[in-house]
Amino acid sequence: MNSRAYITTPIYYVNDRPHIGHAYTTTICDIWARATRAMGTDVFFLTGTDEHGVKVEKSAAARGISPQALADENAAEFQRVLATFALTNSDFIRTTEPRHTTQVQAFLRKLVASGAVYLGTFEGWYDEGQEEYHTENRARELNYKSPISGKPLVRASEQNYYFRLSAFADRLSQHYADHPGFVRPAERCNEMLGRMRDGLQDVPITRTNFSWGIPMPDAPGHVVYVWIDALLNYVTALGLGSDDVSTNGRAHYWPAQYHIVGKEILWFHAVIWPALLMALELPVPRCVYAHSFWIADGQKMSKSLGNFIDLPTIERYTTTYGLDAWRWYMATQGPIAATDSDFNAKHFHETHTNDLVNTVGNCPSRVGAMIGKYFGGILPGDAEQGGSWPSRCAGSVEKWERAMAAFDLVGASRCAMDLLRQVDAMINETEPFKLAKDPANAARLASILNQCAQVVRLAGVLLEPFLPIKGRELAMAFGGVPDAGTPWDSRRTYGVLAEGTPIAKVALFPRVDRPIESVPATPA
Ligand code: ME8
C-alpha cells in the first residue's frame, strides 16, 4: 500500500433525498478509509453533491424555488447524513462551489485548446431521466427504453461541443489490457470491454436547452453537461491541474486509488473519465470499483414504487440495533460484488444475532468474565508464550490487510470473525471453567485466558473500521485504547497486552428481541 491514498464516492444528486444507496456507498468507503488509515496510510476520502443539470432545475421549478436553494437544502441533508453515520470523509465537495466551477472551466479551456473538444452536431438516442445518450446498438439492446426508468428513449439532436472520445479507443483498450484490475469486479470489467467493442462515439459535453450548469467558456448559451462537470469533482477537490486556481496542497493524492460507484454509472467512470484524463494529460485512477444494488424485500427500489429505504427507515435500524450494527450489515451483506443484495428486516436481525450478539459480543464477554472471576480482572501471564497463536494471528492479519487493500470488505470482516470463532472453539475445547476447579491447573488456565485476551484484542483492532463505536469500547475494556499514534506494526501484532493489564467485562451487543417490522415506505 502506498503512503497515501485517495478514495471517492460518487457525488450524489441533490434532486433526491439521501437513501440506503447513498449511505451504503459512503459507508463502505468509510470502512476502507478507516482501515487504510489504521495501517498508516495518509487517506483522503472525498464525497459530495452533484448540483447542476436539468433534473435539479426541474425539481426546483416544481417547488417554486431556485435551483441553488434546492441544492443548498439537499446538500445540507446529505451533510447531516454524514454526521449521523459517523463517516470520516476528508472533504465534501459541492459542484456549485466556485473552487469547482472555475476549475471546470479551466479544464474545458484546455480541452478545447488541445482539440479534444470541438463544436459539432449530434444526433442519438437520449435517456431523459439519466441525461445520457446511447449508441444505436446499445439503444436496440435496451429495446429503446431507459434501463433505469423504463421510459422510451427519445431521438434527439443538438449542436454542441463534443469530447473526442473516439480518439481514445486504442489508448483505453491498451490501458485495460495493461491493468487487469482497472475495473472491478471482473464481471463489470467484461461488460465495459464488451460495450467498448461496439465502438466509441464522441460525447456531447455541452447543452443549450437549459441554463442550470457551469457556463462553457467562450461559448454563450452553452452550459457544461452535468456528467462532465460531475466527474471533474474528483480532481477539482484536489485543486488539480488548473493554472488559474491556487493549489490547495492536495495534488499529491492523485491518482485515486479507488473510485467506488454503483454499477449504473460505471460507463462514465470506466470509459469517459479515463479518456478525459488522458486528454488532460493526467494519470488515470488505479481502480474503478462498481458495486451492485440494494433491492428491498425482493423488489427493485425505485422512486415510482416509493420503496427506497430512506433515512427515517434507516434511523429505525440504527436506533434499535445501533449504528455499528447498521454498518456491519451494509459491509458484510451488501451488494459489493456483482450481484444485488436484498435488504430485509429478518435477515438484518439474523445477521445481528449471529455475528454481533453471539460472536463479537459474546466472545469478549466470556473472556472478560473468566479473567474477572479467576484472576480478579487482571491479565495473568502466559508461560506458553502464545503457543500457535502468534503465527496464526499473523496469518489472519496479513489476510485482512490484503483483503482491505483489494477492497474485499467481506473477506476482511471474515478474518476478524474467524479469530473470535477460534477463541470460542479454544474455550469450548479446553473448558477453563473446569480447569479452574483444580489449583494444579493454574498455569494452564492463566495461559489459556491470556491467549484468549490477546486474540480478542487483536480481533477488535481488525473489527474497528467496521464497528468504530463498539471496537473502541472493546479496546477500552481490553487494555485501554492505545494512543492514536500507536503504529500499526504494534497494533497488528499478537501479544501486546502485558501481564497485569486490567481486563473488563463488556457487553457490546445486547440481544434485540424481534426484527423490525417492514413498514412499506410511503410513495414519494
Ligand atoms: O448518479 N443500491 O448520483 P445519485 C446501492 N450524481 N447503491 C445505490 C443504490 C442502490 N439501490 N442507489 C443508488 C449520480 N446508489 C451522479 C453521480 S459521480 C461523478 C456523479 C448509490 O444520487 C450508488 O453509489 O443517483 C450509485 O452509483 C449512486 O448512489 C448514485 O447516486
Could you characterize what this model shows?
The chain is α/β, with parallel strands linked by helices and 524 residues long. The protein has a domain at 345-491: Isoleucyl-tRNA Synthetase, Domain 1 (Orthogonal Bundle). The chain has helices at 20-38, 54-63, 67-84, 98-114, 136-141, 169-178, 186-197, 226-231, 233-236, 266-279, 311-321, 323-333, 345-375, 389-405, 409-430, 432-435, 442-463, 468-477, 488-491, and strands at residues 4-13, 42-50, 91-94, 117-127, 132-134, 154-163, 183-184, 203-204, 206-207, 223-224, 258-262, 288-291, 294-296, 341-343. 44% of the residues are buried. The model has no long low-confidence stretch (mean pLDDT 94). Residues 10-13, 16, 21-22, 24-25, 50, 230-231, 233, 261-262, 264-265, 293-294, 301, 335 line the site of ligand ME8. Ligand ME8 binds at residues 10-13, 16, 21-22, 24-25, 50, 230-231, 233, 261-262, 264-265, 293-294, 301, 335.
Summarize the structure.
With about 525 residues, this protein is α/β, with parallel strands linked by helices.
Strand content: 5-15%
Q: What ligands can be seen in this structure?
A: ligand ME8
| Category from helices, strands and their pairing | alpha/beta
What CATH architecture of the domain at 345-491 do you see?
A: Orthogonal Bundle
Percent in helix: 40-55%
Cα-atom radius of gyration: 26 Å
CATH-derived topology of the domain at 345-491 = Isoleucyl-tRNA Synthetase, Domain 1
- Termini separation comes to 44 Å
CATH superfamily of the domain at 345-491: Isoleucyl-tRNA Synthetase, Domain 1
Please count the beta strands (DSSP E, at least 2 residues each): 14
Number of alpha- plus pi-helical segments: 19
Q: For this structure, what is the CATH class of the domain at 345-491?
A: Mainly Alpha
**Order of strands across the biggest sheet?**
3-2-1-11-12-7
